[in-house]
Amino acid sequence: MAVSTPGAVGAVGAPDAATPGGAAGPARSAGVLRDAVTSARRVLLHYRHSPGLVAASLAVPVIMVVVFGYVFGSAMAVPGGNYREFLLPGLFAMVSVNGITPTMVGAARDLTRGAADRIRSMPVSRFGVLLGTALADLLVSAVVLALLALVGLLAGWRVHRGLGSVLAGFALLLLFRFVMTWLGTCLGLAAGREDIAGQLAVLTFPVAMVTNTFVPTGGMPGWLRAVAEWNPISAVVAAARRLFGNPAGSGTAWPLHHPVTAALLWAAVLLVLCAPLAVRSYQRHGR
To answer: To 10 degrees, what angle do helices 232-244 and 163-191 make?
Structure first.
């Protein structure tokens, strides 16, 4: 379900896109923006020449719609409605969450293959390189979400709110995807090696499963229910269900009673922590 993100090596801008070291604030910001645009453009060109990456990213959620929506869903009952309407916002959130794995592996690959040394020789913004990669990933993820929504509509998923609420739901999902790319970058740089990052990626699976994505939390043991309901992913899933007007299931914790607020708070906290840490780690490895 993950959208595979190429490493930052291929996204490094040309030297003339750099910001001079003594430039004033606005000029420096313009230089960062140019580096980000160059980085994003090169990542998108990679996707253009590798359409199988997007196809593979869409294949897994489509399979999950079939397996969970029709095979397991035939035995599932959720409070207030159709199981497929309960399921689809969870799958949308899984697309967002799976931004961790490709960026984690990609960041570690950059270190393993000497990207830090190559970037050190270029007058480019480290932040601009990482930002451009994250923005390109966000654009591709928007395409995957749109295609998955069409598949969901064919499977019986419906929205029951106005256009503004629906757009807010997808905006929240994309915001969380953006945050997950920064988290993945932090983890990949901390791992330092591509093989270690690949092994650590397996650990994201149980974290994503102990949520309200596939089943309501009401039937879980008390301790596990508390973990699931305070999981940031559960807040995003519950927020999407509320904004789309889909069945929300049960929940007693504060994040599930105020899911939109909780999801935005989680996103803000994770972004404030992970983005600066990722940039500092990238600069340190580039020395």
So the answer is: 160
At 23 the pLDDT is: 44
CA-to-CA distance for 255 and 237, rounded, in angstroms?
A: 11
When pLDDT is averaged across residues 73-92 and rounded to a whole number, the result is: 81
Query: CB of 241 within 8 A of CB of 86?
Result: yes
Residues 6+ apart with CB under 8 A from 162: none
What b/e readout covers 248-260, taking b as 16+ CB neighbours within 10 angstroms? bbebebebbebbb
Report the sign of the C-alpha dihedral through residues 120, 122, 126, 132, in that order.
negative
- Phi/psi at 251 (nearest 5 deg)? 180, 140
- One-letter amino acid of 62: V
Q: Is the dihedral of CA 246, 250, 256, 257 positive or negative?
A: positive
| Length reported for the chain | 287
Name the token pair of 217. 């939390």
Q: 234: Cβ–Cβ under 8 A, 6 or more apart, which residues?
A: 211, 212, 213, 217, 228, 251, 255, 256
**In this prediction, what percent of the chain has a pLDDT beyond 90?**
28
CA–CA gap between residue 283 and residue 201 (Å, rounded): 23
Helices within 220-285 (DSSP H only): 222-229, 232-244, 254-257, 259-285
Give the residue carrying structure tokens 């309960």: 86
Task: Give the bridge partners for 102, in sequence order.
Answer: none
pLDDT band at 18 (very low <50, low <70, confident <90, very high): very low
Contact 250/216 with Cβ under 8 angstroms? yes
Residue tagged 């069945």 (tokens):
247
Query: CA 170, CA 177: separation in Å to the nearest integer?
Result: 11
> Residues with Cβ < 8 Å from 26, sequence gap 6 or more?
none
Instruction: Identify which has the larger pLDDT, 119 or 22.
Output: 119
User: What is the predicted pLDDT for the residue at 163?
Assistant: 94
